[in-house]
Amino acid sequence: RPCVLLLGKHLLTSGVMALAPQQGLTIMVPLALIMLCAFVTTPAMAKNFLASAPITTDVAENILAMELDAKGASDNDNAHKKTLEAVLYPIYHALPKNSLGRLEHNSVRYVLHRFFVKQHGWHIKGLEPAGDTWGALPTTTSGGEDWVPSFLQDHLERLRNDQGLDPPSLVTLAESLEHLVLQEAIMRLMEVYEVLQLPTANNISKVAAQKAVDTYMMIYLVGRKVNISTPEEASTKWFRFTSRYRGFSEMRDWLMALEHDSLAGDGTISFESVKTVIRNVGERFGTFNERECGDLRSTLFELEDRSKKPGRVRLADFYNMTLYSHWNFNEKIDYLRELGVLDETNSTQPLIIVPNYVTAPNNCLKATNLYSVCCRDLCEDLMAGLERELALPTATPERIAKIVNGLTTTAVTTPRELSSSLLQRLQQLASASPNGEVHLHGRLFAQWMHHVFPRECPFPHVAGTTRPQTAEEWLERTGQSASSSPEEMRKIVQDSCSATDEQDYELPWSHTEELLAGGSNGPILQQRGGDRWRFFVFLAAVALGFVLLDKSLAEQRLLRRNCRLLATLCLFIVVVYAAGMLDSVAFFLPLTYTAVYTLLQWRVWPTKETAEKVCP
Known about the structure:
Blueprint lengths: L1 H13 L4 E2 L3 E2 L5 H8 L8 E2 L8 H12 L6 H19 L11 H16 L1 E3 L22 H13 L7 H29 L10 H16 L5 E2 L2 H14 L3 H15 L8 H31 L10 E3 H10 L8 H7 L2 E2 L7 E3 H5 L12 E3 L5 H12 L3 E2 L1 H9 L14 H12 L6 E2 L3 H10 L18 H8 L7 H10 L36 H21 L4 H22 L5 H20 L1 H10 L2
Antiparallel strand pairs: 1-2, 3-5, 4-9, 6-8, 7-8, 10-11
């Protein structure tokens, strides 16, 4: 610092300003000053890994172009493409398509999200559903690359003349996103090499390579929230990390297994070999993370009996684990509500919905700018089994029930018979559908799966009633911490009451439907409430009303003719709505207009007509 001050004083007195923070001074100064500073160590600028260089549109576009041009693909590339096809194609065949047999914009997002969650545990930013619905675009979060998936998809859809995407296009998008993830990981590794003062062009020792991998892994696991300026500081923070990271020994064993093949031997290690390790870290960490996710599920399921409902834990028991164990279940009630993990059917006995909580953003690791690592949705395997068997977007209740009866999970280890109430629900879903079959990719079927598999399948909330977000995003938006204080949790525990045998143990059911449909400009939600019998009751009431109105207008022929025309229009609107060609807004607006117009005709205009007849 004395050297810097001396140089700065000289520069100021000379009237010259040329100070670059990272590159040092670049002007001519007296030789004595240079020799003096040569013996003084100037602290390096700390590297902020949270603010790493972002992906650019040029990079994204070039990678997409490279994936489209598959010439000269290696055997490994072709084998990987086959792996992608094996996962993507069954989902593709089971989804509704446009007239050209292709997927629309929103369905493509849905497929890609499910693919990355299933394969790697990645929640790609910009692909996640917003508020439990595929009918809303994801909300933008700060500090991420949310634009990347939409940029790639829009670009590819324009190349396909906005006519939807076919299976090969899906594979191209998936490969492009994987390639971008790898590019970001390589940039991060190069930054690690720079901080550790290691060359990327030359081989390094095995010890140095392992230190580079360790440093990269530390940055990955703390969500990039670390600044490092020197190799010594990297070592200090690594040892501090090892003492504080719960489950470090298991993670280190897993990491050493990944290093075994690429960093084998006693010779020097190339940058390409270290890149291979880093690539494997990204692609396989989701599988390792499932061990902790499994522990989380098991811990919560141990408390399930006290709630008297499968897949649910009393909020008091949830908080009690934090007060008297190492588990940190301390999320605030308002935050839990917005996450969509709180069942408040009984307001005096709020419950945690276990599958919703485990897969919520608060349990995710924001590992990179492009994705977060989250616990797997166990319902995904069940849906994948259905899609492979059916290969259609809809199916009869009987066929679905037969397949679901044979599905097994860790909680359901043997085939079983569905209860009569579940079968009745399934029949109701089919009855409410125009083709008499159940839509596999609708909210009501997801809700039915939650009732069948309450420990595996999340409860699908109605669109717009939840707002999934991380604790940091909650703090930024509300200015409040997402964590409850010990006093707040202790009060809820002390005020709680045990579930009694007289309480209703039925899981909640909402009749609102939301179907996954597509359009080039965005998604379309088709919503229905209630069952078909309610619709026919309404139709009968409307018909009866027009009959009575028609009789009351027997002596007013002109008005009677107009009302009959309106009745015909109203009947047409009702029939079109019943066929699923109108949503609720387009259904009720014309009906409301018809009712108002008829009332005016009946109550106001007839008086004027009569007055005209008696005038000379």
